[in-house]
Design a protein that fits this description.
Chain lengths: ~300, ~160
């Protein structure tokens, strides 16, 4: 096995081109578990810890450009205002020690349907992009809706690495909800991310651990956007009413295609998704109403 | 491969390190620092918690090669030759928070970090900070007592020195 330690991003891309089967490691919170249990013996390990860009973030033109290795602890401490949904999701990752190491790049690279960041990224809207690069072809932006392609599979090529994720700064309330057996060290039984985007009159959803890939509840989004527009609710901030909330929950539930496994049954996942969808919608809408009323 | 880094303020060198090896293994088996404990090897239990460049991490989840030229501080580095045990260690002894002792090294490092950042944590803060450290003797109440005691002593000390 090789241990590759590039000092710069260009060196990292060159190394990945030379060793396409090399396994990138940053926080190590997934990779090292596989190594310790001998689940996976890669031909080479590509350590990304020395690459400064991966640990930086910046906000330009209303978009957070989040380095792939910015640890969850820093997302919580530094980005909970521009990225409230992702910060809430980050807070449910593992334990303090895990959050000190793990970052969004690992979730995206691993592409597990249970990754906590995915529902928040999907809910943040259709303008979320994963910036990947290769030595041969340079940089390309993959829309979040095109990123997840199968169980633990993403749309990256073998010679590509994740540099950063582009996420629009929140323009409305966002929420994240996750079902697990305790409050720490929990892999999601299922999870749900939700965001209101008042600027363009859309809403965002993200379902975790209840389908082969993280996915959006498209019909639920369209239904709710229709109601909000038709009744002028974006302007008034008036109550949604129980029927709308109920219907939204049912549509989120219908968007999932979960399986029975050791963590929970498909039925339980569907049921809890409807509950989480109703709750997160209620929480965010109440926050939004308050903003409208206090601005009036 | 060879890995050189700083452990508890001293330069250390480990040879013939396997590329997939963890920092925990290097500490325990190659550089004579067995204080950090090996229990779950998957970041669930926190028994192997060490500082890496001042940040608490599970050393079982850090690849050995990743610590090249970096600073590691283990439970062995909490006590000081001149001043003796760290106040956190003394509080764990005084509060009876050590039963079988296997989880203790990780709890000490994690508590040390908590009190450095937040000298007077609430019970919620303590539970949150220690949520990644499992005690299979289930001695959590005494551990809570120990953290509160260490906090109280730390705040008292700050109060008198001012």
């Amino acid at each position: 096995m090789e241990f590759l330690r590039p000092a710069t991003w260009d060196e990292a891309l060159a190394a990945k081109a030379e060793f396409p089967t090399a396994l990138p490691i940053s926080g190590g919170t997934d990779v090292m578990v596989e190594m310790n249990f001998d689940v996976h013996r890669p031909s080479a390990i590509l350590d990304l810890n020395r690459i400064t860009e991966l640990r930086q973030w910046e906000i330009t033109d209303g978009v957070v450009r989040l380095g792939a290795s910015v640890p969850y602890a820093r997302i919580i401490n530094e980005l909970s205002e521009p990225l409230p949904g992702l910060a809430l999701a980050a807070h449910t990752v593992g334990s303090p020690q895990i959050r000190n190491r793990g970052g969004v790049g690992g979730n995206l690279g691993g592409a597990s349907p249970a990754g906590d960041a995915h529902p928040a990224l999907l809910a943040a809207g259709r303008d979320v992009f994963v910036e990947v690069a290769s030595a041969a072809r340079g940089t390309r932006m993959i829309a979040i809706d095109d990123f997840y392609v199968g169980v633990k599979r993403n749309s990256m090529e073998k010679d590509e690495l994740i540099l950063r994720v582009h996420i629009p700064v929140a323009d409305g309330p966002q929420q994240f909800s996750k079902i697990g057996t305790r409050n720490a060290m929990v892999i999601a039984v299922c999870a749900f991310g939700f965001a209101l985007h008042p600027k363009n009159g859309t809403v965002g959803t993200g379902i975790g651990s209840a389908a082969p890939t993280p996915r959006r509840a498209v019909a639920a989004e369209e239904f709710l956007q229709g109601v909000l527009a038709e009744r002028g609710l974006w302007e008034s901030g008036d109550l949604l009413g129980a029927e709308v909330i109920q219907q939204f929950g049912e549509l989120v539930k219908a968007a999932a295609s979960p399986i029975d496994d050791v963590r929970g049954t498909a039925d339980y996942r569907r049921h809890s998704l409807a509950v989480m969808a109703r709750r997160t919608l209620t929480w965010t809408w109440n926050d939004y109403s308050k903003q409208i009323r206090s601005a009036a | 491969m060879r890995v050189t880094f700083t452990a508890n303020g001293k330069p250390v060198e480990a040879d013939d390190v396997w590329e997939g090896e963890s920092l925990l293994y290097v500490l325990r088996e190659r550089v004579g620092l067995p204080g950090s404990k090996n229990a779950c090897e998957q970041g669930e239990c926190g028994s192997c918690t060490v500082y890496l460049d001042g940040v608490p991490v599970c050393s079982c989840l850090v690849a050995a090669g990743q610590v090249q030229d970096r600073e590691v501080r283990t439970v062995e580095g909490l006590a000081n030759e001149e001043t003796g045990l760290d106040p956190v260690q003394q509080a764990f002894i005084d509060a009876g928070a050590v039963q079988c002792g296997f989880c203790t090294p990780g709890l000490l490092v994690q508590t040390h970090d908590l009190l450095e950042r937040e000298p007077q944590p609430s019970d919620t803060d303590i539970r949150e900070a220690l949520s990644g450290n499992l005690c299979r003797c289930t001695g959590y109440e005494k551990i809570m007592d120990a953290v509160r005691l260490a906090s109280a002593r730390k705040c008292q000390k700050v109060g008198t020195s001012e």
